[in-house]
Amino acid sequence: MKVGSKVRLIGVPDGLKDYPDFATKSTFEKCVGREFIVTALTDKGRAELPIGSVTGNHAEKIYVAPEFLELISK
Predict the structure, then answer these.
(1) Which residues pair with 9 in a beta bridge?
(2) What Cα–Cα distance (Å) separates residue 42 from each residue in 5, 18, 55?
(3) Which of 16, 43, 70, 74 is least enclosed by beta carbons within 10 angstroms?
(4) Tens digit of pLDDT for each residue in 14-58?
(5) Under DSSP, is residue 30 helix (H, G, I), strand (E, B) or coil?
(6) Which pairs from 39-48 meet CB under 8 Å and 24+ separation?
(7) What is this structure's pTM?
(8) What is the C-alpha to C-alpha distance for residues 24 and 5, in angstroms, rounded to an integer?
């Protein structure tokens, strides 16, 4: 997986919660099964995914560990 790869979110990490300022778990659950383009990789190997197509906020992103992603195309 690299920047520009197309991936599908296939799961939600354990321990996520919803917070008053950001519904983390609910947001991840809405994204499961959807496809995204990796826009960056963190130093810990997490993929940055823009999720504006799901939330309506085009600046919104989530960071996901590779084990929760299915690579669709490089």
Answers:
(1) 69
(2) 14, 23, 22
(3) 43
(4) 999 999 988 899 999 999 999 999 999 999 999 999 999 998 888
(5) helix
(6) 39/3, 40/3, 41/1, 41/2, 41/3, 47/1, 47/5, 47/7
(7) 0.89
(8) 23
Six-digit token string for 67: 């084990």
Residue found by looking up tokens 């504006």 in the block: 52
User: Quick one: tokens of 32?
Assistant: 């499961």
Contact 38, 47 (CB under 8 A): yes
Report CA torsion sign: 45, 46, 47, 50: negative
Distance CA 64, CA 35 (A): 13
